[in-house]
Amino acid sequence: MKILVVEDEPKTGSYLHQGLTEAGFVVDLVRDGHDGLHLLLSGSYELAILDVMLPSLDGWQVLQGLRKAGKELPVLFLTARDEVDDRVKGLELGADDYLVKPFAFSELLARVRTLLRRGSRSKEPDTLRAADLEVDLMRRRVVRSGRRIDLTSKEFALLELLLRRQGEVLPRSLIASQVWDMNFDSDTNVIEVAVRRLRAKVDDGFVPKLIHTIRGMGYVLEVAE
Fold first, then answer.
1. What's the pLDDT at 125?
2. Which CATH architecture has domain 127-221?
3. Is there a contact between 76 and 98 (Cβ–Cβ < 8 Å)?
């Protein structure tokens, strides 16, 4: 799942980016309200985390622009301002939750997962499936033929991407940007290694094989006929 964090305080932004990435999310971080609104309108995100006090456009203006454009993704506000009027304003503009700084990361993570779960009920299932493979997105649990499979956060993100785009050949450049949040480097074999390790866990010892290499093009998850 992909999250946009709009936070101009460098230490807080880095803290959120690292923590959410380690929790298995794909995270983009920007420090300016104008840039945040542009990404939210042009990109594909499941959740936005907005600071209220931002350069160029404040968090409320970003939210207004988002809702005016018809974007209904969940929005969590972060702010050092604990005034009731501020919280009411944010909620009236269409925010889904409000967290006052300083906060415990465990609380933020719980709220993020709750908002994503709430939003997923109206848009998509909590579980992705292919053959006898089941992936519970919210509990981050992978099971095949009744057997629990333990994955790292990156392996889980890679499997989720392959399942969401099931039947579609995904080039290495897309996998690099979506899972590793980086531009593809032809000199690195990080993607090949990750796919090999994921395949060993998800496919070895199981029939049918689900993860396939399309030589010269990329990878696809599909149930071969």
1. 59
2. Orthogonal Bundle (1.10)
3. yes
Residues 216, 219: Cα–Cα separation, whole Å: 9
198 vs 126: CA distance, rounded Å: 21
DSSP H stretches of helix in 23-152: 33-42, 59-68, 84-92, 105-123
Give the C-alpha distances (Å, rounded to integers) separating 111 from 77, 78, 103, 105: 11, 12, 12, 10
Helices (H) and strands (E) in the chain, counts: 8, 11
Lowest-pLDDT range, 21-30, 177-186, 198-207, 216-225?
A: 177-186
Predicted TM-score (pTM) above 0.70: no
Q: Which fold has domain 2-123?
A: Rossmann fold (3.40.50)
Q: Which residues contact 126 (CB under 8 A, 6 or more apart)?
A: 117, 120, 136, 137, 138
Are 37 and 13 in contact by the 8 Å Cβ rule? The answer is: no
